[in-house]
Amino acid sequence: MRNTYTLLFALTASILFIATAQDNDNGFDLSTTEDLFSAPMQPNPLTNDPEAVVLRVNNMEIKRGEIIDLVNLTMQRIGGQVPPQQIPQLQQQMYTRVKNDLINAKLIESAVKKADIPVSEADIDAEIATIRESLPEGKTLEELLAVQENTLDELKTDIRNQLASRILFEQQVEGVTEANAIDAKTFYDENPSNFQTPEQVSASHILIATTEDASEDPKATLEEIRASIIAGEISFAEAAAAHSSCPSSAKGGSLGTFGKGQMVPEFEIAAFTQEIGEVGDIVQTQFGCHIIQVSERTEEGTIAFETAKNQIIEFLTNQSKQQVISSYIENLRDQATIEELSL
Fold first, then answer.
1. Which residues lie below 8 Å from residue 305, measured CB to CB, with a gap of 6+?
2. CATH match of 199-299 with 3.10.50.40
3. Which of 82, 180, 259, 325 is in the most buried spot, having the most CB atoms within 10 Å?
4. What's the whole-model pTM score?
5. CATH architecture of residue range(s) 4-189+307-340
């Protein structure tokens, strides 16, 4: 049985009140990122027996397979963003991180039971409804639960535990003082680099990939498509959906917003020099031939304090709450009996 909701809770419970403090619309980032590739290489922990009990937390067991499931789930989400040669090391570090998260989850679970926090059926049903609404079209919750070897009753139990845990954490931070505008201004003045916005563009493209078939000329194909767009016979988005080799074709060719240094040089030069709305000339890169349309450009600048103030206040308040939660969890760990049975 894979208890998916509990697995998600295990990874997030100890940071429930962290503010991500990242607003792509405003362009500033108050978060910090840990270096995942700084630890030395160790034997791969994912190759060992998944049934082995590796930890006991106040007599509650954690099997290696529970950790492996969580590591694999995380790697599925981020693996494509990591160079292949770094994946083994990332797996090892993720294994250690997940193991600690599961220890915290066990301790929080015990604290919730001890506190006997009530959760209404209406709240659980509301969470179930939210999950159903977020599912891909054509998928049902029951189908996904079956794939995960889980049941609806088990999911409801997990939701009950998570909601009770949320209440427990809220109780811990009741006395935290909210940050104010003075605190926010101090942070703003002391961290100027956080509020610099680089030049960015929002753009779409149509890619005709280079193939080994010499009978097809990607430039000629793209010239025809470009001429049709300029003539008003088809929109850029429609042409991208019909002809582009890039996965962005599913979104009308949209690449979203990006800054300098994120695209290959030939593409970047074109995107940052084109007029807004123009269907640009053909650009050739290592991926093939492109035409680009820029929809918006944001100049480099500094975010005004008044624009950032409310987000800074929220960030600082959540940071204070996180410190309280971290201390609470650390206290639970200090009082617990944690046995590591095998590496």
1. 184, 185, 188
2. yes
3. 325
4. 0.63
5. Orthogonal Bundle (1.10)
Give residue 144's pLDDT.
Answer: 87
Q: For the purposes of burial, counting CB atoms within 10 Å of the CB of 253, is it exposed (0-12), middle (13-18) or buried (19 or more)?
A: buried
**Which candidate, 276, 277, 256, 260, places its Cα nearest to that of 268?**
260
CB 149 within 8 A of CB 190: no
Give mean pLDDT in consecutive 10-residue pieces for the chain, a chain of 343 residues. Answer: 43 37 44 40 61 90 88 76 76 88 92 92 94 88 86 92 93 95 98 93 94 74 95 96 93 94 94 95 94 95 95 97 95 93 66
Q: Which amino acid is at 304?
A: A
- Alpha carbons 328 and 310: distance in angstroms, whole number: 27
For the chain, where do the domains classified as CATH 1.10.4030.10 start and end? Answer: 4-189+307-340
Q: Please tell me the chain's helix, strand, coil percentages from 3-state DSSP, rounded to the nearest 5.
A: 55, 15, 30
Rounded to an integer, what distance in angstroms lies between the CA atom of residue 343 and that of residue 333?
A: 20
